[in-house]
């Protein structure tokens, strides 16, 4: 049914759940996976631009502050590439063909663009559970994708912190 699955991941805990869900579908359908991480200031793990001096007409960032930010951004990029490499290797280990892409921009728009260019027939992404005002102000990548891609979409709801802790405790109990 599905032959080309695009998986949108970020640095959140939900990405592992998203990847695993996509991997099951890819394996069952003998599909190819494209795993995409979008570098964005919206991502939980992205560096924050340092405060700027406001005593002038235009904000000024010191060279030390910019250098620090640049180093943080480089580390963020490397972390994203390492995440992608881990997911690709996991997919290949179970016999699923996979490739990866790291891009820069708005996550929703980038994933929609890759969906079209790569001709994906399924997009798998996560949802953190923003509702009401938080969704209004923070936006919703999954909602944007749902309404702008020309194919099927699977949105994986993130587990609550309580569910995650319960799962980890259960796994530890079974390990001993």
How would you portray this structure in words?
The chain is of the alpha/beta class. Helix content is 51%, strand content 19%. The chain has helices spanning 14-29, 63-93, 107-118, 132-138, 141-148, 161-175, and strands at 4-9, 32-39, 98-104, 122-127, 152-157.
Please give a quick description of this structure.
With 176 residues, the chain is α/β, with parallel strands linked by helices. The chain has helices at 14-29, 63-93, 107-118, 132-138, 141-148, 161-175; strands at residues 4-9, 32-39, 98-104, 122-127, 152-157. Helix 3 runs parallel beside helix 5 (141-148).
Enumerate the spans where pLDDT stays under 50 for 5 or more consecutive residues: none
What fold name goes in the CATH topology slot?
Answer: Rossmann fold
Instruction: Provide the spatial order of strands within the biggest beta sheet.
Output: 3-2-1-4-5
The number of helical runs is 6
